[in-house]
Amino acid sequence: MNNGLKMESIKSELLENGFYLAKNIIPVDLLDNIRKLAILHGQMGAGVRKHYGLRQPHAFRTAPFIKDIFECEKLIAIISEVFESEDWFITNHADLHFNALNGWHKDDGMSYGDGGYFGGPGYHIDEPNVYKIAIYLQSHKDFDDGLTIVPRSHRTQIIRDDSSEIEYLEVEVGDILIFDARLSHTGQLSPIPGPRTERGQAILDGIVDEVSMVEQKKIPKSEKDSELLELFRSVVGERSSIFFTVATESEPSNIFAINNMKRQLKELGPEVSPYLPPSVRDYLNSKGVKSIDQRVFWRSEFPVS
């Protein structure tokens, strides 16, 4: 976590602990504008329904307004610090999340049973040259409804066990979380999450009777959880976040990017292009942000018709 550490420690933190939380990077007003567009997008029902919420895959293409995060020069600069190079690119993988519950997992694709995004267990890899960026569009200080991680779990296939150290990350609007895709993590686990502050406790106290009424209903657990989550959202507001992937070229990162995109295309359908729309690519280029679209290995894997 960034507690006044110098920027040059980012890479060593990622290699050792598997994550780095950078505070106050993106202007709040910029994220507020993106959040409004994200909520409108979610209300249209686009994306994949999962865990009582929605996830919009391939979001730089399917929800292109998220590209505006790169109005922030500090975001671009800190990604360059991660790789100690400006020759990084977005892999075109991006997810826009809405209001979902979650469970413990890794983002390396191993849970799908097809070899994962690295083409097999990648826990022996010292430097994967590919990282996830998480940007939350609201604060997660008051409740356990943000991201909880297992530090240093990026070097083991074990997701979590009784001996695992866990750490809740109090992410606020403007912060960015950089993490290794192999890191064990979870989002909101319970439809009514635990409070972390007096304000959070007061909010939950205000709905205690409604929660009790739902919990006493003789309905399936899935319906009960859905109602409780909707009740929680009614008092705290919509929850949304952007997760995207950045990389520099290497054998592990190239394999990861290709397999990660194949998963997104499987969710969206074969008619969807793995490439960005020209308008988005041109916008990113104008900000000095490279896309994977022009990489030889990418064009070889996904030939342009």
Offer a concise description of the structure.
This protein is an alpha+beta fold. It contains ten helices and eleven strands. The protein has two domains: 7-188 and 241-296, Jelly Rolls, CATH 2.60.120; 194-238.
Structure, explained:
It contains ten helices and eleven strands. By secondary structure, the chain is an alpha+beta fold. The strands form two sheets. Strands 1, 2, 3, 4, 5, 8, 10 and 11 form an eight-stranded mixed sheet that branches. A three-stranded antiparallel sheet has the order 7-6-9, with no helix packed on it. Residues 3-8 have low confidence and may be disordered.
The CATH homologous superfamily of the largest domain? q2cbj1_9rhob like domain
- CATH-derived architecture of the largest domain: Sandwich
The average pLDDT score comes to 94
Estimate what percentage of residues fall within beta strands: 15-25%
Largest sheet: 8 strands, mixed
SS element count, helices: 10
Query: Given the C-alpha coordinates, what overall shape results?
Result: globular
Question: The CATH topology of the largest domain, please?
Answer: Jelly Rolls
Write down the domain tally: 2
Considering DSSP H and I runs of 4 or more, what fraction of the residues is helical? 25-40%
